[in-house]
């Protein structure tokens, strides 16, 4: 169960590309509070996530230092989850 929980956490954290926030949604629903705006911008900044062997490539572009810092924090969270898997010795399964 801990292994499946970590996989679900990683899947959730990696669902941060701009496909999650299509232009149609941005056009008709744009949040007013700062956290919601940051979430939209975070998603809109990332264009692709892929994996080559045991390396994740997160591709995107942002104009703001604040969004860059938010994205850096997200990457640290993903690293932490992978660290949890390493402690449980499940990394072999992912490789």
Q: Structural class of the helix and strand makeup? A: alpha+beta
> What is the count of distinct domains?
1
The share of residues in extended strands comes to 5-15%
Number of helical runs? 5
Spatial shape: elongated
**Number of beta-strand segments:** 2
Q: Gyration radius, to the nearest Å?
A: 15 Å
Mean pLDDT: 78
Q: Can you summarize the main beta sheet?
A: 2 strands, antiparallel
SSE order: HHHEEHH
Mind sketching the topology for me?
Layout (H helix, E strand, L loop, with lengths): L1 H13 L8 H6 L5 H12 E7 L2 E6 L4 H23 L3 H4 L1
Antiparallel strand pairs: 1-2
Helix pairs in contact: 1-4, 3-4
Question: Could you provide a short overview of the structure?
Answer:
The chain has 95 residues and is α+β, with helices and mostly antiparallel strands. The protein is built from five helices and two strands; from the N terminus they run αααββαα.
Description of the structure:
With 95 residues, this protein is α+β, with helices and mostly antiparallel strands. It has one domain (2-94). The chain is built from 5 helices and 2 strands. It has helices spanning 2-14, 23-28, 34-45, 65-87, 91-94; strands at residues 46-52, 55-60. The chain has a two-stranded antiparallel sheet with strand order 1-2. Helix 1 runs antiparallel to helix 4. The chain starts with a helix and ends with a helix. The model has no long low-confidence stretch (mean pLDDT 78).
